[in-house]
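Re: that backbone. Tokens:
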């Protein structure tokens, strides 16, 4: 049985991988191997072996999410990615930062923090819920755009409601109005099929510890090539003045922000391969099955509570 691959309490039916997820035993075993490799000779591992392993993990993640490896950096979680972008960009009094009433609280707090420090104003689009169609999401957001709008922070999959925003259309509509988008894609990897290059957002950050089931502390930040020079990690370290010319400043800074346990990042390819092996149809079948189960669970709850379905 698939349940045998997890350490989850057998007395609990665990449904909420969208919160912190649960890591499969084979991925935990791979993490133990990486940690033992690190502890056997820390200097050799961190100074010689770590970077090729990290590059390999980045390359495999890039293929999975439809992005160039040159545009990706690992971060501990999506909140860190949101902070890195928002705290790197320059705003001024009168600038407007657009988000929605369904934005995740931690990221909304970051937006508020940046606005308070710079004098910018947070504009909140009221996305209705219950909702009838994706067009209502687009309409609610676009009508809040003004000539002062400098950036939009939008969820891909909303934490509170589970709505999947039509993110590609939103990015395109906002780009036509000269507005860059920072996508909070915390829940999307492993839940929906991703192609970040096609979405076209200036910035996209996501977690690998939710539906991808990698260890906690594995997330990523995608920054479009034309935007990378402006984005710095929240922790400034050795990469800031590295003389190396074989990598971009973007990756040199994000790849080393101080000494940490890097094993969650290195296990991302293991998680991608393992989860993709659970069903004969691989990731497409796994995503489709999870979606069907979510809809079935929704119907059970709606029937029991005598509620109309809240969205298509």
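Recovered sequence:
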């Amino acid at each position: 049985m698939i349940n045998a691959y997890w350490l989850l309490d057998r007395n609990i039916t665990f449904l909420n991988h969208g919160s912190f997820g649960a890591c499969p035993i084979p991925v935990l075993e791979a993490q133990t191997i990486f940690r033992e490799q690190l502890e056997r000779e820390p200097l050799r591992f961190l100074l010689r072996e770590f970077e090729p392993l990290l590059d390999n993990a980045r390359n495999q993640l890039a293929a999975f999410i439809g992005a160039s490896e040159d545009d990706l950096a690992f971060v501990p979680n999506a909140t860190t990615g949101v902070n890195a972008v928002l705290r790197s960009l320059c705003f001024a009094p009168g600038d407007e930062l657009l988000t929605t009433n369904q934005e995740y609280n931690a990221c909304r707090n970051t937006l508020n923090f940046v606005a308070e420090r710079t004098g910018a104003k947070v504009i909140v689009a009221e996305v209705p819920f219950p909702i009838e169609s994706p067009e209502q999401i687009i309409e609610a957001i676009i009508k809040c755009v003004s000539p002062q709008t400098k950036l939009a922070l939008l969820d891909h999959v909303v934490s509170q409601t589970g709505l999947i925003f039509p993110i590609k259309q939103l990015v395109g509509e906002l780009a036509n109005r000269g507005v860059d988008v920072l996508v909070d894609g915390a829940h999307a990897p492993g839940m929906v099929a991703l192609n970040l290059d096609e979405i076209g957002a200036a910035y996209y950050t996501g977690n690998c510890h939710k539906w991808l089931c990698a260890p906690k502390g594995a997330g990523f930040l995608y920054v479009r090539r034309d935007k990378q020079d402006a984005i710095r990690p929240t922790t400034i370290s050795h990469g800031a003045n590295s003389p190396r010319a074989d990598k971009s400043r973007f990756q040199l800074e994000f790849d080393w922000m101080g000494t940490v346990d890097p094993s969650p990042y290195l296990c991302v390819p293991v998680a991608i391969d393992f989860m993709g092996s659970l069903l004969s149809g691989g990731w497409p079948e796994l995503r489709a099955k999870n979606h069907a189960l979510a809809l079935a669970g929704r119907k059970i709850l709606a029937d029991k509570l005598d509620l109309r379905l809240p969205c298509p």
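The chain has one domain: 38-269. The radius of gyration is 20 Å.
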